[in-house]
Amino acid sequence: MTSFPEEIRFSMQACLIGLSAAILGCDAPTSAIPEEPISAADTMGPVINNVVLNHNPNPTVPLAAILSLSTDEPAEVTVRVDDGERVWDAISSERPATEHSLIVLGLRAGRTHTITAVAVDASGNTSNSRALALETPPLPDAVPRPEVLVSQPDRMEPGVTLFDVNRTGEDGETVQDYRMLVIVDDQGEVIWYYRDYHGATDARRLSNGNILYLGGNHRAVEIDMLGNIIQAWHANQADPETVSPGSIHVDTATFHHEVGELPSGNLLTLSRSARVIDDFPSSDSDPNAAPAPATVVGDTIVEFTRDGTVVHEWSLLEILDPYRIGYGSLRSTFPPIQQHYSQLGEEAIARDWTHSNAVSHDPSDDSFIVSVRYQDAVIKLDRQTGALKWILGTHDHWKEPWQQYLLEPQGDLEWQYHEHGPEVTGEGSIVLFDNGNGRTSAFGEQLPPDQRYSRAVEFSVDEDAMTVTQEWDYGGLGEEFFYSSYISDADWLPVTGNVLVNDGGRRDDENGMAAEFDSGGRPWAQIFEVTRTEPAEKVFHIILRDEAPAGYQVYRAQRLPSLYPE
After folding, report:
1. How many CB atoms sit inside 10 A of residue 255's CB?
2. Which residue of 16, 193, 214, 539 has the fewest C-beta atoms within 10 A of its own C-beta?
């Protein structure tokens, strides 16, 4: 596979429509440029001139094109695409005009597409351009070929599925050239992909229609659907060699796990801070073990404006009990973070106390929902003050004053362990992916790895009564048995009420049984959509698996209403 030097990669990402490809060093082949104007052939519609169809000049998104043309009167233009198997209208202009430049998305790899412009004037008269041919390149080895097990479009949430992909090599490490964002249609076929050679994980659509994603090395990046970088941000610990030209510095330690948009347009992410605690717990199996000094790393919730100004920064070391631990709280943080935070000498471990992995906004009362993985807790904080509102999770080992914030379980409820991705649904409940590591809190006896299970689960919280009820779940012992010990996600879907589950951190042992992240097993992932019923039914199911010993892992998956911005 071709590997591009960093300066070439950045110039590729900087390609913009209308700039000279020669100046940017990007190839922008022309598919068809008629030598003479094209007029309405069989109708009295607008005269179409200067039709040009180009491949996307930005190579980070190969399955896209740009169709430009002019009309002799103001007209609306629709792009009609025929790939030999299906015909669809890819995009229409937003308003009547005489000059048109439209992006063409939804192309399939390795096919010849016939593309026609359909122009309509104010009186409804229509004319077509002559058909132009566009051949797309085949999918490179880097892009996964999903195995489709179930696809029932009439029962699925409308739209397309966006997810990140990391591919591991023989040594189990992520292969840099195989890190990307991918979109598949309701048949599981790849119709768009974008490559960031420094990593891309959490991704979502912004209110302006662009894609915002968390890049590797403490970066946040906004791109349009052609892969052009619109804006980028980086935290204090970002590697300068990976920072895009023009990136805005945000004065916080790190970006990790999530970046999202608030109703104000500000951005929300997770960072870290550290504190030396002289008498921190030294064991998660023996509650009577003598405490010892430790550098304790906790997460912070950071809100910042698009110009990089930090608006709020709330530290969990100031909000939760710094002495309460869960399984994982005594582990070292990731190596670059370890080197930065270890304050007791090079050999001392910087403890990954909380390992938060998600923060989202609850617009009903302007608060934050935070997943605190190593505390087996989902917490709610006031956005303005950082004040704790409640704690959803096991009651084990919480002391005063935190006990007063614990939600009391009602009815048949199973606590979540080491969860990912909680979000508030349109119905006010909370849906999350319960990874289920160990199925107990610190000092308890963990289930053997082959008996651990994950599930998607929905909770309803009554804040006045300070109670929680389990409304629905899928997985575990009652239905399909699956287990992802790390990453993964579950999203409530607003049109159907279904739930999209990203079971993204699968590892199998030598016997094909579910195993832990550090087991050495080959990673693979599955993404499926289930009805929120009892029993639940799958209406969409794809598997991403590579030839051994390589594998795929998927941090999150999102259902977008359309490939095009609305």
Report:
1. 29
2. 16
HEC profile of 122-133: CCCCEEECCCEE
CATH entry 3.40.50 includes domain 147-528+538-560: no
Strand partners, 66: 54, 103
Q: Are 541 and 476 in contact (CB under 8 A)?
A: no
CA atoms within a 13 Å half-sphere pointing along the CA-CB vector of 137: 16
Question: In whole angstroms, how far apart are CA 339 and each of 17, 230, 315, 410?
Answer: 42, 32, 20, 44
Helix, strand, coil in percent for the chain, rounding step 5: 5, 45, 50
**DSSP secondary structure code for residue 508 in this structure:** B
20, burial (CB in 10 Å: exposed 0-12, middle 13-18, buried 19+): exposed
Contact at 8 Å (CB) between 301 and 388? Answer: no
User: Residue 226 and residue 536: Cα distance in Å, rounded?
Assistant: 37
Q: Where in the chain is the domain with CATH 2.20.130.20?
A: 6-135
At 374 the three-state DSSP class reads helix
The residue behind tokens 């180009």 is 54
Question: What is the DSSP pairing of strand 408-410 with strand 467-475?
Answer: parallel
CATH topology of domain 6-135: S-adenosyl-L-methionine-dependent methyltransferases (2.20.130)
Q: Tens of pLDDT along 175-233?
A: 655 789 999 999 999 999 999 988 899 999 999 999 999 998 999 999 999 999 999 99
Q: Distance (Å, rounded) from C-alpha 514 to C-alpha 521?
A: 9
Residues 451, 426 contacting (CB under 8 angstroms): no
Kindly state the tokens that stand for 16. 């913009």
DSSP string covering 448-498, please?
Answer: PGGG---EEEEEEEETTTTEEEEEEEEETTTS-----SS--EEEE-TTT--
Which residue(s) pair with 458 in the sheet? 431, 472
Q: Are strands 219-223 and 211-215 parallel, antiparallel or unpaired?
A: antiparallel
What is the C-alpha separation between 241 and 198, in angstroms, rounded? Answer: 10
Q: How far is CA 96 from CA 81, 115, 130, in A?
A: 21, 20, 20
Q: Are 258 and 359 in contact (CB under 8 A)?
A: yes
Assess whether the previous peptide bond of 363 is cis (omega < 30° from 0). no
pTM: 0.91
Domain ranges in the chain with CATH number 2.130.10: 147-528+538-560
Judged against a pLDDT cut of 50, whether residue 23 lies above it is answered with no
| Per-residue pLDDT reduced to its tens digit, 490-525 | 999 999 999 999 999 998 877 777 778 777 778 899
Tell me if 269 sits within 8 A of 261, measured CB to CB: no
- In 297-355, which ranges are continuous DSSP H helix? 335-341
